[in-house]
Amino acid sequence: MEGVDHLAFERNKAQFDVDAMKIVWAGSSHALEVSDRMSRLVASDPAFRKDNRAMLGRKELFKNTLRKAAYALKRIIELRLSEEEASMLRSFVDEPAFTDLHWGMFVPAIKGQGTEEQLKKWLPLAQKMQIIGCYAQTELGHGSNVQGLETTVTFDPKTDEFVIHSPTLTSSKWWPGGLGKISTHAVVYGRLITDGQDHGVHGFIVQLRSLDDHLPLPGITVGDIGMKFGNGAYNTMDNGVLRFDHVRIPRDQMLMRVSRVTREGKYVQSNVPRQLVYGTMVYVRQTIVSDASTALSRAVCIATRYSAVRRQFGATGGNPESQVIDYKTQQARLFPLLASAYAFRFVGEWLKWLYTDVMTRLQANDFSTLPEAHACTAGLKSLTTSATSDGIEECRKLCGGHGYLCSSGLPELFAVYVPTCTYEGDNIVLLLQVARHLMKTISQLGSGKKPVGTVAYMGRVEQLMESRSDVQKAEDWLNPSAVLGAFEARAARKSVACAKNLSKFSNPEEGFLELSNDLVEAARAHCQLIVVSKFIDKLQQDIPGKGVKQLLEVLCSIYALFHLHKHLGDFLSTGCITSKQGSLANDQLRSLYSQVRPNAIGLVDAFNYTDHYLSSILGRYDGNVYPKLYEEAWKDPLNDSVIPDGFQEYIRPMLKQQLRNARL
Ligand SMILES: CCCCCCCC/C=C\CCCCCCCC(=O)SCCNC(=O)CCNC(=O)[C@H](O)C(C)(C)COP(=O)(O)OP(=O)(O)OC[C@H]1O[C@@H](n2cnc3c(N)ncnc32)[C@H](O)[C@@H]1OP(=O)(O)O
Ligand SMILES: Cc1cc2nc3c(=O)[nH]c(=O)nc-3n(C[C@H](O)[C@H](O)[C@H](O)COP(=O)(O)OP(=O)(O)OC[C@H]3O[C@@H](n4cnc5c(N)ncnc54)[C@H](O)[C@@H]3O)c2cc1C
């Protein structure tokens, strides 16, 4: 039935103001207004159709992406959209493209690492898209180990140029998005060599293709690296390979904010830390955390709506079968993901604040919070992307068989999302960075250096080693201080245990390698504590709207108690709670699920996603799933003809042969 809201009865159950929650989710009423307007603009324009991506061959798929990117820019100019509106519009187009790297990494790399003069020269060109750029760091042989990059950039004082060269096969740049077929320029990372001395990895702006005929410039070999995971999905992106054969660029194309090379070939470091060369990665990791909440909320929205539509078993006395969302097992899998989506939203908001704060301090030559910013962006990028990837797959299973159809939207979402666990830093490698930060913090405790920021709790480590939870009944777990106390004690004890074990090694680096798995677990516990504590902080704010704050308190408790239950072994073995307290947490969790149940559809409506953006029959706003699934099946190209191609050629003779054999 077209036009009927099959989920209206669910929407009527909501006990809170969904419109007020939409504002909380978007971040402000202004952000909601812009995202609402931009998402509708994209959804109502047939040029942005995306429902046939899984069916297209690579060339057609890619050409379509280029068409959409050019059309999006045309609309942005015609409608005179602001930077904020333009970026929202691009995100609702919802198709990985070279523009992501141009706006997301090339421009930020120049902004973060260029001098004032370089900004003046390059930014206008990039912002008007007169040049298109990408971020060429990773090589065939090295991705995680940035210091192991092999590309050489040698200064030639005779001509005042750098000579860029790929000395080995493994030094070929490999992976950069947008590089394969489209970028005219790249920020290339390579080892700077002056006067025979290697100064380590630095960034350089390099032109790759002619602005006249788009052909690669002399000495440059460039192409696409081939099909990636999943049909459609990330194959709209031209991840590329690039080799240099003694390519020359002017000296002023080295990004010189961190260090520079003089006309005479002298290497001069400025007063900013060397690690700022990695600044673009910190920026992108921060954006990835908010994006995780977006990707997870999409999957959760689909699975929640479908779980309310889907019925299995339990028909009694003429009543229909039960909605699968009423099964406690479904709730125990789905609602923690719903809570995680909200948790990641808020920790993403906080991380954005932290990043902005660090940037302001850097302007004033205050570098003190850089290690904290690196550890938080690395750790939270790792935690949220791993949870989101697993969460999208769980949502597929929550939708049963129909979740496996491309028309559920979930396979494509998964295929596009999973590389997030690898790109911008492998998730394990990043957790090891957090672990280093934790071990360093602990080692400095004795020196009187007071830990600040997210490691401030380490300053109370002695007290945390002794603390015992005072929870006596299930409701006591609703108390934020009970939850924080348990998470802090667990994180502190896991880190301290690692530090103690490390101290047994005469060579600390050897110890770090040997204990790396324990260190990763300690880092994870620390990052979960950050998410929990930032959710709790959010709830200290004034949050208007009937029932909104109460429901967020429920979600916050679910996030925390779900992880307490999942990692019960940690909490018990470190002795910060008893097994009785563990089971009380589980009792409380069940009751919290019941409180979410009537509000579940309202909570996913608050994401304010259009059907176009969700691109899922199971997640349709009106819940009209079955007729649309049935209709969709007939659109498959296999159903264009009753008898498929290949039948007459292969199957018919085979059938005939088998029949003949049977008659003999
Ligand atoms: C249908 C849906 C459609 C959706 C549409 C939209 C989707 C698209 C969305 C979005 C587009 C995005 C598209 C994808 C983009 C991907 C791009 C890339 O992947 S670019 C490559 C990234 N590469 C890495 O991340 C390498 C990872 N490796 C590293 O970062 C480093 O090498 C690391 C961290 C492993 C460090 O290695 P060391 O230990 O050798 O580091 P040392 O260089 O020696 O540094 C030592 C000191 O520096 C600090 N440090 C390291 N990194 C730092 C940093 N970044 N900032 C500050 N300090 C840092 C350390 O803490 C350490 O500090 P102390 O000495 O202990 O105090
Ligand atoms: C879709 C996609 C887009 C990308 N886009 C870009 C781009 O635009 N620009 C760009 O420059 N790069 C890009 N990359 C490359 C990406 O940044 C790297 O793949 C990433 O940093 C991981 O590095 P790696 O591939 O070398 O993995 P590896 O480091 O080789 O990882 C392999 C395994 O080794 C483990 N491992 C590695 N080091 C350690 C360690 N020290 N301790 C314990 N375990 C370890 C890892 O956990 C992993 O399990 C992209 C990658 C993908 C998949």
TrEMBL record:
GO cellular component: peroxisome
Signal peptide coordinates: none
Keywords: FAD, Fatty acid metabolism, Flavoprotein, Lipid metabolism, Oxidoreductase, Peroxisome
Active-site feature positions: E424 (proton acceptor)
Stretches assigned to the Acyl-CoA oxidase C-terminal domain: 479-656
Domain Acyl-coenzyme A oxidase N-terminal: 17-132
Record bears the keyword Nucleus: no
Gene Ontology MF term list: acyl-CoA oxidase activity; FAD binding; fatty acid binding
A biological-process GO annotation: fatty acid beta-oxidation using acyl-CoA oxidase
Residues annotated as domain Acyl-CoA oxidase C-alpha1: 278-439
Positions contributing to FAD binding: T138, G177
Annotated compartments: Peroxisome
Alphabetized InterPro entries for the sequence: ACOX_C_alpha1, Acyl-CoA_ox_N, Acyl-CoA_Oxase/DH_mid-dom_sf, Acyl-CoA_oxidase, Acyl-CoA_oxidase_C, AcylCo_DH-like_C, AcylCoA_DH/ox_N_sf, AcylCoA_DH/oxidase_NM_dom_sf
Keyword Flavoprotein carried by entry: yes
Cofactors, names only: FAD
Pfam families cross-referenced by the UniProt entry: ACOX (PF01756), ACOX_C_alpha1 (PF22924), Acyl-CoA_ox_N (PF14749)
Family assignment from sequence similarity: Belongs to the acyl-CoA oxidase family.
Protein name: Acyl-coenzyme A oxidase
Organism of this sequence: Vicia faba
